[in-house]
Fold this sequence. Notes:
With 291 residues, the chain is mainly beta. 7% of the residues lie in helices and 36% in strands. Among the domains are: 87-138, no CATH class; 149-289, Jelly Rolls (Sandwich). Strands 7, 8, 10, 13, 16 and 18 form a 6-stranded antiparallel sheet that branches. Strands 9, 11, 12, 14, 15 and 17 form a 6-stranded antiparallel sheet that branches.
Amino acid sequence: xxxxxxxxxxxxxxxxxxxxxxxxxxxxxxxxxxxxxxxxxxxxxxxxxxxxxxxxxxxxxxxxxxxxxxxxxxxxxxxxxxxxxxxxxxxxxxxxxxxxxxxxxxxxxxxxxxxxxxxxxxxxxxxxxxxxxxxxxxxxxxxxxxxxxxxxxxxxxxxxxxxxxxxxxxxxxxxxxxxxxxxxxxxxxxxxxxxxxxxxxxxxxxxxxxxxxxxxxxxxxxxxxxxxxxxxxxxxxxxxxxxxxxxxxxxxxxxxxxxxxxxxxxxxxxxxxxxxxxxxxxxxxxxxxxx
Length: 291
């Protein structure tokens, strides 16, 4: 005799009742509650050994497993029941199998492998990023070859008879370029490439000075126009036995982009009657952008 199955509920609809299928389902309690753990009452428990190759196909997978937007889809060709990586994920996987090491960055929709490159200014620790976070450090000696900087001189060629009679300033011509980073020095002056703070210095050697040249100055002149006077006094009184004098100049100034800077000399004889007797024997002019 077989086993009695308990808890069987039978739903009997009332006269004229419709749509009783839901009520029937509610009232029905566990038809067939016998043991399914194995023979003799039921089949074999579902486990990995009971899932045969090919029994779960692509079409039976839940829709949230495959999504072409996230890069997982159906393999094409003769393997339609398989999943495959698509688009970015496929490229990323292929990149991860490459022989090199480095950081993965996006080049449009394509990931590429890169490493941080060292420069004269910045040195990267762990540049490839494979052993931790890449860390930038300033090099021990930092240079910047694109920073505005220059040094020019007169090459020892005198510029004679330029000033001495109380006339206008004479702007010294520095024709020999020692270095000119960025090309911002264009004789006879330097043109500021950006607004900022600049440092300038010069050494000017004058000749042909006479006792009557009691008034004179040497200045850093700008197109602002602003003058920065380095020397203003009795040049005739400071000349040496060879009727010459040397002046060292230094000034830090603020310039706006496009303003120019040069060196000017003006020597005169009070009351007039003098002549253009002052010579620019030699000179050096240099400057750079500080910040």
